[in-house]
């Protein structure tokens, strides 16, 4: 009886509202649709999480690492979700000029241009007093952590200008703001990125290229495992973190994607600290 009654009643809302609802949402675009990004050191940790997030938000992404097997492994993960048309990768040791040039040229060849550059490459082959650091180690840290960021920026900027603008994000560290004991040279290199952000942002503002910096706190990565996996040391460190936990890589990737999107269109020359509340003032 109820079925017969319902058949006699015409309810326009049930008939027409759902198709309109579906059509409305099918037209929503993702914030980075149509953009192409280069992310250095993007086969693990924060770099891989950043590549994931940028692709999820619509960008085509060129990943890179200095080891071929790492690139291949990361590509196998990312391509399952985003496909060949969205994710590609090359071997690139950022301290090598030829590798840097190949990274840029392959990106343009495969994706047609560059809109986003995320400089995430970093190394720290030493610990102890900064005064015990020899020149070779100092040069290696600054070549990877600072010099490569600058020269890749210099080499990428003309391609961004040809596209009408772009976004650059340097991945620094809480150690660049509050230097960490035993990590003196690394801390200084990350402080240098804060200055690089300010200077290049001022130079490129009129070119519609925004330049910002992310300073993560202690994030659970292979790079930071010496800090996060030692029980006594991690317990001591967490006393300095108001949120009482280490960060997650995707939390940093989300901040980076925000800085690459139009949601941050009036932000340039800034450093965003994502540290769970750790002290972050010079």
TrEMBL record:
PROSITE patterns xref list: ADH_SHORT
Sections of the chain in a coiled coil: none
Ranges that cross the membrane: none
A Pfam family of this chain: adh_short_C2
Keyword line: Oxidoreductase
Entry GO MF terms: carbonyl reductase (NADPH) activity
Domain of life: Eukaryota
InterPro entries: NAD(P)-bd_dom_sf (IPR036291), Sc_DH/Rdtase_CS (IPR020904), SDR_fam (IPR002347)
Oxidoreductase is among the record's keywords: yes
Record flagged with keyword Oxidoreductase: yes
Leader sequence residues: none
Family: Belongs to the short-chain dehydrogenases/reductases (SDR) family.
Designated name of the protein: Short-chain dehydrogenase/reductase SDR,NAD(P)-binding domain,Short-chain dehydrogenase/reductase
Gene source species: Cinara cedri
């Amino acid at each position: 009886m109820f079925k017969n009654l319902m058949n006699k009643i015409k309810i326009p809302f049930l008939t027409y509202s759902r198709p309109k609802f579906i059509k409305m949402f099918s037209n929503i675009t993702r914030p980075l649709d149509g953009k192409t990004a280069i992310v250095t050191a993007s086969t693990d940790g924060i770099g891989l999480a950043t590549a994931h997030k940028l692709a999820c938000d619509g960008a085509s992404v060129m990943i890179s690492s200095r080891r071929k097997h790492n690139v291949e492994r990361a590509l196998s993960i990312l391509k399952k979700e985003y496909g060949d048309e969205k994710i590609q990768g090359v071997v690139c040791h950022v301290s090598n000029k030829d590798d840097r040039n190949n990274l840029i040229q392959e990106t343009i060849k495969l994706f047609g241009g560059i809109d986003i550059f995320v400089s995430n490459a970093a190394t720290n082959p030493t610990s102890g007093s900064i005064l015990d650091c020899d020149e070779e180690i100092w040069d290696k840290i600054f070549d990877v952590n600072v010099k490569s960021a600058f020269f890749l920026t210099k080499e990428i900027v003309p391609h961004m200008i040809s596209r009408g603008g772009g976004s650059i994000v340097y991945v620094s560290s809480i150690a660049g703001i509050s230097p960490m004991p035993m990590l003196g040279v690394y801390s200084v290199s990350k402080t240098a990125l804060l200055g690089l952000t300010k200077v290049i942002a001022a130079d490129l503002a009129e070119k519609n290229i925004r330049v910002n910096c992310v300073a993560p706190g202690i994030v659970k990565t292979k790079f930071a495992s010496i800090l996060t996996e030692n029980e006594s040391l991690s317990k001591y460190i967490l006393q300095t973190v108001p949120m009482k936990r280490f960060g997650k890589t995707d939390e940093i990737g989300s901040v980076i994607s925000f800085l690459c999107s139009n949601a941050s269109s009036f932000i340039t020359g800034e450093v965003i600290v994502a540290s769970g509340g750790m002290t972050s003032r010079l």
